[in-house]
């Protein structure tokens, strides 16, 4: 691939363009708002001028509802040898393309499983896709040349290709992406009118659950409107669990011993199934998650503290597998949880104490 045209210069399009430019591809940028394309160009994502001739690949990075019309227009203009989109749903846009009479042999639907809570070209980064799954949904009509161009794009962005059927993909993202967004927003919505005394008690748990609730509503309206059926199916199952949890908790309130036992069993079942599901979420390097030991360290809110603790862990010969920061409300301090191999925890604890760090249990 020597040349590419990215249509749509928001987070995904700008990030793909930045990655391609860094790998030596000549990239052109187009957006329905020319000023946004110029912003992406100013960031080094390519040229906001139109290409002089046909490019190798057109990357359509627009909301799902606009994919078909944008691709159809690009094909009518004969802009490229191959065309793909990076929208978060796949089956609907393909049906729309068929209805518009597009050449599906020159097109492949794709979806990089990466993103941020921020949107727009200023949120773009060349390493957004590194190590992340990038779904490809070829059909029997897809020409080999187009599939190879898509695979080259994935490789240049240093992502990991995953081949799936379009409908299977949409059901999968409903479960692992779209429903979690809605559930996170629902939990966060409970805080909107909560008493200040309750909100002041917020800790790391509520921050973890509501992190993605800060995402751009307009972007998620586009996504959910394009995949409503599969998301509704998953939410219906969640609603069944919620109803069961309510009934179990009411049972725990009862003076009847049998109802309390039944309620306790119901809550325990949900918690155990949650453990089992969480254990299936891929961990480091895409493998099954490992049980790490946590070394908790009190850390001040001042420049250089994180760098110092990582340097001290490195000097002790310990690899930090993961890290989490728990902020202390109203205080200039927090707790850093360093996840390490169990055998390394005692040595790290001793080394950090010797270097003056306050270890917390």
TrEMBL record:
Pathway it works in: Amino-acid biosynthesis; L-tyrosine biosynthesis; (4-hydroxyphenyl)pyruvate from prephenate (NAD(+) route): step 1/1
Reaction(s) this enzyme catalyzes, per UniProt: prephenate + NAD(+) = 3-(4-hydroxyphenyl)pyruvate + CO2 + NADH
E.C. designation(s): 1.3.1.12
Positions of the Prephenate/arogenate dehydrogenase domain: 2-279
Domain ACT: start-end pairs: 294-361
Gene3D superfamilies: 6-phosphogluconate dehydrogenase C-terminal like domain, NAD(P)-binding Rossmann-like Domain
Alphabetized InterPro entries for the sequence: 6-PGluconate_DH-like_C_sf, ACT_dom, NAD(P)-bd_dom_sf, PDH_C, PDH_N, Preph/Arog_dehydrog, Prephen_DH
Keywords (A to Z) from UniProt: Amino-acid biosynthesis, Aromatic amino acid biosynthesis, NAD, Oxidoreductase, Signal, Tyrosine biosynthesis
Keyword set includes NAD: yes
UniProt-recorded Gene Ontology molecular function terms: prephenate dehydrogenase (NAD+) activity
Annotated signal peptide: 1-19
Presence of keyword NAD: yes
Family membership noted in the UniProt record: Belongs to the prephenate/arogenate dehydrogenase family.
Alphabetical list of PANTHER family matching this protein: PREPHENATE DEHYDROGENASE, PREPHENATE DEHYDROGENASE [NADP(+)]
Protein name: Prephenate dehydrogenase
Organism: Streptomyces fildesensis
